Amino acid sequence: MMSSIAEALEELGATLRVNAERPNLLGYVAHEKQMLFHRSPARLRQYIGGNRAGKTTAGAIEALWWATRRHPFRRMPDRPIKGRVVGVDYDHGVADIILPELRRWLIPSDLRHASWEDSFDRKLRILTFANGSTIQFMSGESVLDKFAGVSRDFIWFDEEPSQAVFTENKARTVDSKGSIWITMTPLQGLNWSYETVYLPGTGDGAERDPEIFVVEADMADNPHLDPHEVQLFVATLSPEEREARIHGRYTALGGLVYPSFSLDDHVVPAVDGPPPGWPVYASMDHGLHAPTAWLWHAVGPDGQVLTFGEHFAAEMTVDQHAAVVLSKELAWKRAVEYRVGDPSIVNRQQAMGVVNSVHLDYLRCGVSLQLGDNNPEAGINRVRRYLIAAPGQQPRWRCADNCVNLIREMRHYRWKTYLSPKMRDRANKFEVPLKKDDHACDALRYFLMSRPDISELGPQRPVLAPGARLAPGQQPSMPGPVMIDPEHRPVVRTGACRGRDPEYGDFELCNEHMGGIW
Q1: Domain 263-449 adopts which CATH fold?
Q2: 350, 348, 328: which is closest to 339 by C-alpha?
Q3: Which of 203, 231, 365, 450 might form a disulfide with 208, Cβ 3.0–4.6 angstroms?
Q4: What is the mean pLDDT of the chain?
């Protein structure tokens, strides 16, 4: 009798030691970022964080709270819960990471017969609880048809799935008004989840989606990590990897094309039209299935540029775009000095003896366009110079906050990179941007390339009067748009851009000089 009591006490002590070292669901203590995640009532939640920031633990606890219907911050349906967990793959993502994490926190009595073996069907990959709730485990590599079937009360993605897998699974929660959460380290760059989940979940005003909640966690937010070990790990990472793996931040694989662009420095409140006295210009990048982007710019007395208007649409014909363009310009009651566009619009097609091009179609609709300079490297350098601000001054280029598509593209326009991580490690970086979501950026580039280099811009000065000619060192005395041709003869034109001739000083470049058609 005494022996059995002693054995029972010893077994109880061992159980208490295990529970103290590895507490179950009842002993879970969330850190600050985990608690924000659990408390959010949003239907779609994203927990992005660095490695070891407690993401998988928070996701597992959330799944168990749902399955046991003991969620402390949500009202659960009065019936068995049907959940699904999707890992990167099954052998590693599910079997090696997710299932051990769930077993770590499970209370045995929550399982059928208090037994994992009796509760987990290895063939169907379904865990059944004592209350009848089930969790199905799937691989993100499965074909889309595998994700169809009955509705789900919750779906947990541990690490980022493909957009197709996410969309197919999201459809399973529509009729049940179910919940979705993604726990992830953003290693894939500025991809679909950045656009679809992160930006709407962190936006301001009308851009904010109240059904999406985003938690950003740093590796340092986990109080159980040794700071010295963290520093040793940090030392092995590239700057891009450091942002993602340590701080849990989205980074542009290959790097951002315009890293200096910021909402604080380059975005101003919307205006009804161009500032009084500032000449107006337009630029465009053409698309049919892809969007066509039109931008309107006003140029200040010292060469500063304000992009104040935008038209951005796909699946429209040239005459429809032209109607929008002319309508906007008429509403501003300001003549446009010139319009510059995608040089590919001159590509001609002949059908039944009629020669057509996008350029000619716009001209027939009353919208004249000169052709832009499509040198991406030079154009990107030009835009970058306009983004730079001298100490104590504003940048040379800014845009109004109603140019939402331009702002969106500027924030994540990135260099092309290799799809394979192995190739990214072995090969030099690409020197060209990724041809995706760049329509408004290209329109901006065409316009800034149509103007003199910013390094030549100084305070606005008067220019030559019609018929006048500057002697070396002489300053112009009367305003008037003038260009100096290769033989240094002043020619009066409209819609001019200022520049500087090394011999004759300030001058104006006209549209005809830059290949325009009037």
Answers
A1: Nucleotidyltransferase; domain 5 (3.30.420)
A2: 328
A3: 203
A4: 78
